[in-house]
């Protein structure tokens, strides 16, 4: 199964204004370090140590698979994947920022206080897609 992620030059992270959406953005100069940090989280399969917010989750029964959230997740997190039949947030990669929530047309992205570690089978897809984001 092949998962898709947004084209990175569509995201425009460094162009985001300050404000609710800007809180999870990084400057252009900091982006390589941020992407490296994402790679480290993928390798360790753990969330950022300094993240205070819980991750988000997508309620599949409400999601219309429009991919708006996928395009809005900042590059330094890259936590949302389209698996074909559904769209998922990987909690270990999700800072809870919550840029995606602001873009969802049906408001189906919820706080996931009781998140569970991602299955090894899912990580294999994430490992494959890491570095292409
Ligand atoms: S809250 Fe949404 S936009 Fe923010 S990191 Fe998590 S999945 Fe990405
Ligand atoms: S923006 Fe909302 S409806 Fe669209 S794919 Fe994401 S979670 Fe689903």
TrEMBL record:
Residues 1-53 are annotated as: Disordered. Residues 1-10, 37-53 have a biased composition (Basic and acidic residues). Keywords: Iron, Iron-sulfur, Metal-binding. Residues 54-83, 85-114 form the 4Fe-4S ferredoxin-type domain. GO terms for molecular function: iron-sulfur cluster binding; metal ion binding. The keyword Metal-binding applies. This is 4Fe-4S ferredoxin. It comes from Streptomyces venezuelae. The lineage of its organism: Bacteria, Bacillati, Actinomycetota, Actinomycetes, Kitasatosporales.
